[in-house]
Amino acid sequence: MLENINEFNSVEKSDFSTCLDVIEHSHQISGIDTTLRFHHFKFNANKQPMIKALANTLYSYIIDYCLSAKNRDDKLSNRQATILTKEARKLFRHPEITDESPDKTGEAGETLLYFLMEAVLGAPQIVAKMELKTNHKDEVKGSDGIHAKWNDELNIVDFYFGEAKLYKQASSAIDSALKSISDFHDIKMYEHEFSMVTKHFKYADDSVKEQISNLFIHGEAGSGVRVNHSCLIGYDFNGYKTCSGKNHIEIEKDFRDIFISDSSRITSLLQKKFDKFDKKHLAFDVFMIPFPSVVEFRNAFNEALD
């Protein structure tokens, strides 16, 4: 039954709350159906944002992220887990990293977005796009992730296409995300993505697979499905450097005050971008996450892969 699709989630919410926190707010975007989420890194007891801890947590999920559940046992032996981890690692492009040549593959952001969609939205990944690459050096085509969940309130399936953008500036990340989404619909890439669900459904449940396939009519969404875009907007934020306190608790409190103050600017920026966006029939879930350095996060993720 489609109502049970949410049970396919593999990410533990406790793993999210260990490294990341949420800012409660009242900001709203008008003119387009948007849920705006503000998250930030927690600080460890040595007063450092938990970048490496998050990178290592993401690494612990690479089997779930990269490989279909239907092709492996529910409970893996140590030997099976070692073999599958090695197989999953090979799917990443894994560039050599230097200060002059940071990682620009986008895979760290894409993996983080998968983590957020499962942990926060409760929307399980339904196609493991990484394992469909014919060459590990290739980029994943189309969206940065395909997820879905049952919506009890509306009795529909919410379908999520992911878009992860990590830039030094929030404005550049938003611009890039909206351009990718606009192109995604202009060339009707969604038709290909819908067909991928039919061909490459991640789980060994033919009944659910068939029901999801029936939601689409000749490449278009039917009445039982809503198309959403889940966007991760990551950007460098000086608040991590300017916050102060005697210990990590005080530092995190000061940082949250700085971040909350800046959230109005970020909301206004997103509103201006959406005002010019011409596909207002779509629904959005936007994760705004400030980083001490997006380059540092990418490097930490690739170090975890090593």
List keywords for this structure.
306 residues; alpha/beta; 7-stranded mixed beta sheet; single chain; two-stranded antiparallel ribbon
Blueprint (SSEs and pairs):
Blueprint: H1 13-19, E1 20-23, E2 33-41, H2 51-59, H3 62-66, H4 78-89, H5 107-119, E3 125-127, E4 146-151, E5 156-167, H6 170-186, H7 189-200, H8 206-213, E6 216-217, E7 220-221, E8 225-236, H9 239-242, H10 248-275, E9 283-291, H11 294-305
Parallel strand pairs: 2-9, 5-8, 8-9
Antiparallel strand pairs: 1-2, 3-4, 4-5, 6-7
Helix pairs in contact: 1-2, 1-5, 2-11, 6-10, 7-8
What does this structure look like?
The chain has 306 residues and is α/β, with parallel strands linked by helices. The chain has one domain. It is built from 11 helices and 9 strands. It has helices at residues 13-19, 51-59, 62-66, 78-89, 107-119, 170-186, 189-200, 206-213, 239-242, 248-275, 294-305, and strands spanning 20-23, 33-41, 125-127, 146-151, 156-167, 216-217, 220-221, 225-236, 283-291. The strands form 2 sheets. The protein has a 7-stranded mixed beta sheet, with helices on both faces. A hairpin with a 2-residue loop joins strand 6 and strand 7. Helix 2 crosses helix 11 (294-305), helix 6 (170-186) packs across helix 10 (248-275) and helix 7 packs antiparallel against helix 8. The chain is globular, with a radius of gyration of 19 Å. The N and C termini lie far apart (40 Å). The mean pLDDT is 92.
